[in-house]
Amino acid sequence: MVAVALGLALFGLGQFDEPLFAVLTRGWQTVLGGLGPAAQRLGQPSGLSTHGVVVGLSYRLLYMLVSVALLHVLLRGRHARAIVVGYGLAFGLSLALLLLGQRAGGAWAAVQGHRLLDLISSPLALLLLYGLVLLRRAKR
After folding, report:
1. CA distances from 61 to 20, 48, 138 (A)
2. N or C terminus of the chain with fewer C-beta within 10 Å?
3. 3-class SS shares of the chain: helix, strand, coil, % to 5
């Protein structure tokens, strides 16, 4: 039942992303509204996306957390630490590429960071990780 609920949550995140983005945008505008102009720019759409940086990152982080939880349930807790570390490293690399691209003017790095974020916050990453674990288990 938990796997079905998490699967439905992922489906909902994918299907109803625009209403969720609207809620996240309003929430982040409220949070960032009292801060300086530099912080407020994080809530505004960037050149890579139609959503603000913090809005996009929070959506992707939510998607990755539900994906990790689903993998944890499907794999019955096995390899959970490796999966969390893998997602964390990919998320960190994505952020580093985005920041490098935006701060240093490297459009290529920013685009690659955005693409990596899109990959790890999609069902494809979930299926690939699950398949890799099953293949590894079959080799033993």
Report:
1. 13, 17, 31
2. C
3. 80, 0, 20
- Which two three-digit tokens encode residue 8? 């439905």
Question: What tokens appear for 121 in the block?
Answer: 């916050």
Which residues, 6 or more positions from 39, have their beta carbon under 8 angstroms from its beta carbon? 32
* 56-92 per-position pLDDT tens digit: 889 989 998 998 898 889 888 877 888 888 888 989 9
| The pLDDT of residue 37 is above 80 | no
Cα dihedral 92, 94, 99, 104 in deg (nearest 10)? 120
How many other CB atoms are there within 10 angstroms of residue 50's CB atom?
10
Q: Distance between CA atoms of 75 and 32, rounded to whole angstroms? A: 39
Q: Which two tokens stand for residue 76?
A: 């019955």
DSSP 95: H
Distance, CA of 68 to CA of 84 (rounded, Å): 7
What is the distance between the alpha carbons of residues 108 and 114, in angstroms, rounded to a whole number? Answer: 10
